[in-house]
Amino acid sequence: MVQERIAVIEDDEDIQELIRYHLGKEGYHVQSHTRGEVGLRQIRDKAPDLVLLDLMLPGMDGLQVCRHLKTDPRTAGIPVIIISARGEEADVVVGLELGADDYLAKPFSHRVLLARIRAVLRRRAAAVDDRDAVLHRGDLCIDPARHEVTLAETRLPLTVTEFGVLHLLAGKPGWVFTRQQIVDAVRGADYAVTERSVDVQIVGLRRKLGGGARLIETVRGIGYRFIEDYESAEP
């Protein structure tokens, strides 16, 4: 069985070693870095299955690392879990706006960390395994097997969470999903997240869809839906 590889970018060596110990016990292969620019370079050279990313790093900080990862088509699909002592809602929203797939405030127990890691990896694996669920919506193509989305043959660099939200909405055009339904379907019912973070994901999706942003409609006071009339959309 191939070990899932996790890159940990954390400058506190005690925390880094504790994470390495607990993940190693669970069978994960861990690659640790104390500096953002070094971790980013290694991730680009050999992509891991998931990244644990501290925000307060020397040199290139965690937000810059996350921005680079999520704007590079080669690494945009790698799940990122931010681990930070900055746990205010504003900090969480900033992390999610940059494309992070989860945000865990320090201090946290190793059991919670492992549960979050497993949940993110399960979502990614489920998308890869669902090979018959390719969706075609006019110019939009959603391919879970490749974890790819193209609009008018232009590939869109979506994060794991953005992909999940789009796949959910596009799977049932015209259906209105509440924010909580989106959270439950994409992240799991036990995931502690504010409804505002769903809006953040929608904003990111619309930005990347460009001219196709109109495919996702806001239903005031309820949530979102994928339009039923989706014959054509320019990126």
Notes on the structure:
This protein has helices at about 15-25, 35-45, 60-70, 90-95, 110-130, 160-170, 180-185, 195-210, and strands at about 5-10, 30-35, 50-55, 80-85, 100-105, 135, 140-145, 150, 155, 175-180, 215-220, 225. It is an alpha/beta fold and about 240 residues long. The chain folds into two domains: about 5-125, Rossmann fold, CATH 3.40.50; about 130-225, Winged helix-like DNA-binding domain superfamily/Winged helix DNA-binding domain (Arc Repressor Mutant, subunit A, Orthogonal Bundle). The protein is globular. The model has no long low-confidence stretch (mean pLDDT about 85).
Spell out the blueprint of helices and strands.
Elements: E1 5-9, H1 13-25, E2 29-33, H2 36-45, E3 50-54, H3 62-71, E4 80-84, H4 89-97, E5 102-105, H5 110-129, E6 135-137, E7 140-143, E8 148-151, E9 154-156, H6 160-171, E10 177-178, H7 179-186, H8 195-209, E11 216-219, E12 223-226
Parallel strand pairs: 1-2, 1-3, 3-4, 4-5
Antiparallel strand pairs: 6-7, 7-8, 8-9, 10-12, 11-12
Helix pairs in contact: 2-3, 4-8, 6-8
Short key terms for the protein model shown above:
single chain; 235 residues; alpha/beta; Rossmann fold; Arc Repressor Mutant, subunit A; 2 domains; five-stranded parallel β-sheet; four-stranded antiparallel β-sheet; 8 helices; 20% strand
The CATH homology group name of the largest domain: Response regulator
Order of neighbouring strands in the sheet with most strands? 2-1-3-4-5
Looking at the structure, the CATH topology of the largest domain is Rossmann fold
The biggest beta sheet reads: 5 strands, parallel
Number of domains: 2
Assign an overall shape: globular
Q: Helical content, roughly?
A: 40-55%
Beta-strand fraction estimate: 15-25%
The gyration radius over C-alpha positions equals 18 Å
Low-confidence stretches: none
Number of strands: 12
CATH class of the largest domain: Alpha Beta
CATH architecture assignment name of the largest domain:
3-Layer(aba) Sandwich
Summed up, the helix count is: 8
Structural class: alpha/beta
Distance from N terminus to C terminus (CA atoms, Å) equals: 40 Å
Mean pLDDT, all residues: 84
Q: Summarize the helix and strand pattern as letters.
A: EHEHEHEHEHEEEEHEHHEE
